[in-house]
């Protein structure tokens, strides 16, 4: 049992330490956005939430985002927004505080979160479920916790990997 827990901890550390290869930040360059780029725009004067979509048009005063491809919730495609009034968003360049460009899909952060939450939930449920009816103690809980944490961590990691996420890199608007 102790060997399985030790291997589980080593696995968690390896996943957390392995660096993401090939990002633009490692190369020391900041990418420029252009028409067709998938971006995330921070414009707090217009909206608290971030705008996410593809740049449909870009000029000196504003950029137009097509948000149809950005409707994914919990890994499920929610379908396109069919009304152009809500699908296309025009944002003044002066209102843009920060813009980021998509660096592609990543599953690292979601996998680690899923692994941690799954391990805590699985260990807690397994530990509480295996308490004896007569004179339960903290020691009984702690004896059963690692097995539940291993199973819950595995399941949570798989779910986190399946949900994934998107890596965002800082970008610049052309002048």
Q: How many DSSP H or I helices?
A: 5
The secondary-structure element order is: HHEEEEEHEEHHE
Percent helix among the residues? 40-55%
Widest sheet: strand order?
6-3-2-1-7-8
Radius of gyration: 22 Å
Output mean pLDDT: 80
The geometry reads as elongated
Low-confidence stretches: 14-27
CATH class of the largest domain: Mainly Beta
Which structural traits does this protein have?
alpha+beta; two-stranded antiparallel sheet; SH3 type barrels; 24% strand; elongated; 8 strands; 175 residues
Describe the structure.
- This protein has helices spanning 2-17, 24-27, 84-87, 108-129, 138-163; strands at residues 38-42, 51-58, 62-66, 72-73, 76-77, 88-92, 98-106, 165-170.
- It has 175 residues and is of the alpha+beta class.
- It has two domains: 2-16 and 107-163, no CATH class; 27-106 and 166-170, SH3 type barrels (Roll), CATH 2.30.30.
- Strands 6-3-2-1-7-8 form a six-stranded antiparallel sheet.
- β1 (38-42) and β2 form a beta hairpin.
- α4 (108-129) runs antiparallel to α5 (138-163).
- It starts with a helix and ends in a 5-residue tail after the last strand.
């Amino acid at each position: 049992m102790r060997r399985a827990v030790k291997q589980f901890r080593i696995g968690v550390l390896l996943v957390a330490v392995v660096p993401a290869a090939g990002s633009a930040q490692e190369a020391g360059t900041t990418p420029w956005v252009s028409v067709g780029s998938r971006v995330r725009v921070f414009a707090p004067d217009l909206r608290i939430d971030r705008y996410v979509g593809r740049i449909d048009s870009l000029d000196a005063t504003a950029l137009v985002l097509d948000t149809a491809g950005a409707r994914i919730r919990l890994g499920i495609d929610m379908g396109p927004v069919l009304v152009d009034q809500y699908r296309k968003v025009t944002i003044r360049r002066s209102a843009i505080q920060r813009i980021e460009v998509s660096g592609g899909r990543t599953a690292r952060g979601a996998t680690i979160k899923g692994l941690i939450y799954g391990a805590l939930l699985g260990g807690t449920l397994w530990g509480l479920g295996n308490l004896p009816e007569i004179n339960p103690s903290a020691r009984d809980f702690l004896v059963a916790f690692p097995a539940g944490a291993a199973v819950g961590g595995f399941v949570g990691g798989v779910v986190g990997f399946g949900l994934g996420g998107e890596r965002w890199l800082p970008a610049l608007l052309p002048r």
